[in-house]
Amino acid sequence: MKKFLLAASVAGVALAGAAVELSAQTKPTIATVVKISGIPWFSRMEVGVKAFGSANPDVQASQSGPATADAAQQLKIIEDLTARRVNALAVVPMDPSVVEGALKRAMDRGIIVVTHEADNQRNTNADVEAFDNAAYGAALNERLAKCMGGQGKWTSFVGSLGSRTHIQWVDAGAANAKKYSGMTLVDEKNESFDDANKTYEKAKEILRKHPDIRGFQGSAGNDVLGIGRAIEEAGLQDKVCLVGTGLPNPSAQYLESGAIDAIGFWDPRDAGMAMNSVAKILLEKKPLADGMDLGVKGYEKVTVKKGPGQGQLIIGNAMVIADKATYKDHLF
Amino acid sequence: MSTLASAYTPSTTGHPVRQVLARRPELFTLMLLVALCAFVAAANPDFLRLATLFDLARASVVIGLFALGVFVILAAGGIDVSFTAIAALCMYGVTKGVVEFAPGLPLPVVFTLSIAIGLGLGLVNGFLVHHLRVPSLIVTIGTQYTFRGLLLTFIGTIWITTLPPQMDDFGKVALLTTTSSQGATIILPLFVLILPAVAVLTWWILRRTLLGRAIFAVGGSPAVAERLGYDLRSIHLFIFGYAGALAGLAGIIHACSNRQANPFDLVGSEIDVIAAVVLGGARITGGTGTVVGVVLGTLLVVVINNVLIMAGVPSTWQRVVVGAFILIAGAFMVNRRRA
């Protein structure tokens, strides 16, 4: 009797194992893990992940993330997914250093790891970045210069002086502005702390100190909102140019009034699709080559180079610079 | 310790001046404020413009309302660090409620609602401080986390960037409007009047009512105050309730003036507010201080935060300058008292 029970349970386990194996073999799973679920940015990314899933019926794509911006909770989700033996993880780390260990364990178990917004991540097969930071900063500044007619004083805002990407953007912007002898950079790199009200107060102070200022270049998502309000209240929409990183929905009213001239961003929907696309390529054991097409808008001809770890760094050209006429194509 | 103080006030006239300063510490705050403004005006004469005054007045409202609330608690020997979480919860909760359920709700009702929620949360603080008999710093650190957690977990995390029209309009109503030489419109918003109104109310409560005497008595010595027959429970409930109500008011004004409701906003600005109250001459240990001092302390903090670009301080140095200024001013404040 005992033997029979044992045999039956062994058979049962084997059967269950076979079933899991079977489903895993027919349809590989790609799990996208975001910083926070429920905020507009990552809801937009989920649109991309779902679109990728329906366009590629041979894989199962899903997205999850913690309810609050908490690196520890994100770590837990990654560990859970690793234990459930997904085939690939596409992670947007809250803090790359916190998840290094978990991603290494996942890779040791044969799981493909793709990351995004983490060009310093060591334990990853590939990190996907939307664009080259210097190119983005220069593009924003070029748009500003066009609006200013290459003439007049301008200034720049950063989220904080410790924010590496923001500094890269405004430095590239300042380098670009040197092309125009009429453009003068004044009181650069004001810290906004990504707080619309602080940005507003600083922008007003700059308007008082330099009544003849003609341009602002923002970096953090809130910068254009605070500066835009200061410009709009002063009735200077037509005299002062404002270009910076911003999201279409929150910026809409200022784009309509003309206080913001253009916003720059990358579309998280496309980034989500690109990460999943890279994961699928790696699952199929195909190589990543410089100049290859990921089949996603803005990632048609990506730059592939060696990352900080053993993985690769993939850089797209997915920056979007939208103005009053075009922002409605990207509402999120 | 008197060496520092006497270095600051010449020794020949030191004694009478020091006596006046000891009696009226807010005079010292005023001197600092005037000195700071004179310094900035010397660095950049453009500082002396109406537009500067308008901007400073606007920037003082929210921090000033917070400071008056904290001052009332500080006067009674307590401290509160949860008021920014209360303000954020009121601001975001009420705005979200209005947007989703009652877009046409009249503005006075919106304000009353926000103040009422703030009052309620403040009373929770007061109740806990009185009944747990735990220092109010510990209680309010706890409630700050709790209130903020409740806001982000149950009310929402998504920014509201399009306010209901009645709130949006209120933020834009002008008390005075002028135009600069460059054609920029400069507005002094109507809501700046709320700060002087609340300051007068707070002064009246503290100086003209029995309750005010009770608050300072408790701040001086709770044991003595209790023996004198003051009811500690109702005083605790009043001071925290009042600070909570002011936080609710400040929150909704912040949303109207900012033209957006961001649930992650405000929390983190407690230190500026407490610095304003202390620089206004109130002792962190309670029992002293004046409303005039608090208003001057608020102006001092607002000015230091809003003139550094004007004075030409590069942005890498700005935090160093703010920190150094608060240290120096704070050190003078403490030494003045010991003298």
> In angstroms, what separates the terminal alpha carbons of chain A?
64 Å
Which term fits the overall shape of chain A?
elongated
Q: Any low-confidence stretches of chain A, pLDDT <50, length ≥5?
A: 15-24
| CATH architecture type of the largest domain in chain A | 3-Layer(aba) Sandwich
Overall pLDDT of chain A: 90
What is the ordering of alpha helices and beta strands of chain A?
HEHEHEHEEHEHEEHEHEHEHEEE
How much strand content do the residues of chain B show?
A: under 5%
Helix content of chain A: 40-55%
Low-pLDDT ranges of chain B: 1-13
The CATH C-level name of the largest domain in chain A is: Alpha Beta
Structural class of chain B: mainly alpha
| β-strand amount of chain A | 15-25%
Computed structural class of chain A:
alpha/beta
SSE layout and pairings?
The complex is a heterodimer of chains A (332) and B (339).
Chain A: H1 2-26, E1 29-33, H2 40-55, E2 60-64, H3 71-83, E3 88-91, H4 96-108, E4 112-116, E5 126-129, H5 133-148, E6 152-158, H6 164-177, E7 183-185, E8 190-191, H7 196-209, E9 213-218, H8 223-233, E10 241-245, H9 248-257, E11 262-266, H10 268-283, E12 303-306, E13 312-315, E14 319-322
Parallel strand pairs in A: 1-2, 1-3, 3-4, 4-5, 5-13, 6-7, 6-8, 6-9, 9-10, 10-11
Antiparallel strand pairs in A: 11-14, 12-13
Helix pairs in contact in A: 2-10, 3-4, 5-6, 7-8, 8-9
Chain B: H1 2-8, H2 11-23, H3 26-43, H4 50-75, H5 83-101, H6 107-132, H7 136-155, H8 165-172, E1 174-179, E2 185-189, H9 194-208, H10 210-220, H11 222-227, H12 232-258, H13 270-279, H14 291-306, H15 315-338
Antiparallel strand pairs in B: 1-2
Helix pairs in contact in B: 1-15, 3-14, 4-9, 4-10, 4-12, 4-13, 4-14, 5-6, 5-7, 5-12, 6-7, 6-12, 8-12, 9-10, 13-14
